[in-house]
Amino acid sequence: MALKLNPLVISCQKFSSLHLASAVNLRSPKLIMASTQSSSNGEQFLELLAREVADSNGFCEAKSLTLFLLLWLYQEIARDVENLKKSYNPPRKINVQVTHSMPPQKIEIFKSMEDWAEKNILVHLKPVEKSWQPQDFLPNSASEGFIEQVKELREQSKEIPDDYLVVLVGDMITEEALPTYQTMLNTADGVRDETGASPTSWAVWTRAWTAEENRHGDLLNKYLYLTGRVDMKQIEKTIQYLIGSGMDPLTENNPYLGFIYTSFQERATFISHGNTAKLAKEHGDMKLSQICRTIAADEKRHETAYTKIVEKLFEIDPDGTVLAFADMMRKNILMPAHLMYDGKDDNLFRNFSAVAHRLGVYTVNDYADILEFLVGRWNLEKLTGLSSEGRKSQDYVCGLAARIKRMDGKVQGMDKETPTIPFSWIFNRQVKL
Ligand SMILES: [Fe+2]
Ligand SMILES: [Fe+2]
Predict the structure, then answer these.
(1) Which of 376, 372, 367, 373 is nearest to 408 (CA)?
(2) Where does the chain bind Fe cation 2 (predicted)?
(3) 116-432 placed in CATH 1.10.620.20
(4) Quick check: is 132 catalytic?
(5) Which residues pair with 421 in a beta bridge?
(6) How far apart are CA 36 and CA 28, in angstroms?
(7) Which ligand is nearest to the CA of 215?
(8) Rounded to an integer, what distance in angstroms lies between the CA atom of residue 417 and that of residue 408?
């Protein structure tokens, strides 16, 4: 809360200890957090001071100046807290949020799937000892040849164009916001990790999935740092902003919606990392191409697991699952980093997405292809035994990819000027959208 006191007015007023005490009560939470012991001492001091001023029955200049300074300080701190709160908030407003939309009785479905998940989902994880690690692709800082290896890496990456760097940085930042994605999975009813070390199959999956994903941002981050081509401080600020903002994929703590979302997302990241791999090769950076390909392979494995879960849900509850699928598609699958911000560009995510689209890393057509793939993967067209609402959802979802492609075709055919804008991630160099 900001203090609404005007220091100029305060300095001309006669103060009572009551006035000051009320000002003290408006002190910022930051002050309370910073020091509990000393703040109560400070309060006592202020009250004493205020009493003295009141008792002096007139305005002593020195005392009023002290008061003025103290209140000004409080005002400044309160303003600081206000700005701090703003800086955590995303640049765009979050819609009204729906929570816990799955009927409670359906939690039983997920409980009954525990054994199935152990046998069918956990098998898609890789044991740590057989997993690749970022170090397998990076110069070894403990070796004598480290400097030479870094030079080689920089040599290989020097032909990478700025627009590609913007897309790779955006992909890396998306991977780095992993704490948010684990939080999302752990807000889903019936499958969340209740303790942080729960032995249920769902919880084991979520932790191990997170641990596998953690290597993606780690590797891309270290690689980009070593190239010397990007502004790491701006990138790091964007990561901090993004994790602070969270995400709002409209999955409503509902694991039906959540697993449809993750199925879609894993395939989207499989496609985009696959495309950055292809482009890195074209730009002569074979190491980067290998890195992106390796990450894409992980995403594919994760896609297999999540689509299997939804396939099982279609088997157990076809009507509920098709309604959830249609619901998710009507709301649009928002990308996980949709609240991205670098402290400068309020449209950073839109601008990054526009560059990714122009380079063919992730396009509207890919979105429609993913939808088409999932419709086929879950055999949606042949789904039977649905309610009338279920059949409407089935028709909607089955026809949606073609409609998106038709619309995209029309937009592509339109003559449009593409602006060029600066990206802080590459020292404000200009990139065409
Ligand atoms: Fe990933
Ligand atoms: Fe992933």
Answers:
(1) 367
(2) 213, 266, 299, 302
(3) yes
(4) yes
(5) 431
(6) 12
(7) 1
(8) 17
Establish whether 61 is a catalytic residue: no
First to last CA, the chain: 40
Instruction: Identify whether the C-beta of residue 404 lies closer than 8 Å to the C-beta of residue 396.
Output: no
Number of residues assigned to the chain: 433
Residue 199's φ and ψ, nearest 5 degrees, are -85, 5
Contact 182, 206 (CB under 8 A): yes
Beta strands in 171-259 (DSSP E): none
> Measured between alpha carbons, how far is 398 from 393 in angstroms, rounded to an integer?
8
In the residue annotation, 124 being an active-site residue is answered as: no
Interatomic CA distance for residues 176 and 173, integer angstroms: 5
CA of 213 to the centre of ligand 2 (A): 6
Cα–Cα distance, 236 to 255 (Å, whole number)? 31
pLDDT tens series, the chain, 433 aa: 333 333 333 333 333 333 433 433 333 333 333 333 444 455 555 566 556 555 655 555 666 666 667 766 766 666 666 666 566 665 666 667 899 999 999 999 999 999 999 999 999 999 999 999 999 999 999 999 999 999 999 999 999 999 999 999 999 999 999 999 999 999 999 999 999 999 999 999 999 999 999 999 999 999 999 999 999 999 999 999 999 999 999 999 999 999 999 999 999 999 999 999 999 999 999 999 999 999 999 999 999 999 999 999 999 999 999 999 999 999 999 899 999 999 999 999 999 999 999 999 999 999 999 999 999 999 999 999 999 999 999 999 999 999 999 988 877 767 678 899 999 999 999 999 9
Residue 217 three-state SS: helix
Q: Is 213 annotated as a binding residue?
A: yes
DSSP, collapsed to helix, strand or coil, labels residue 280 as helix
Indicate which ligand has the atom closest to the C-alpha of 178. Answer: 1
CA distances from 18 to 11, 14, 24, 364 (A): 16, 11, 10, 63
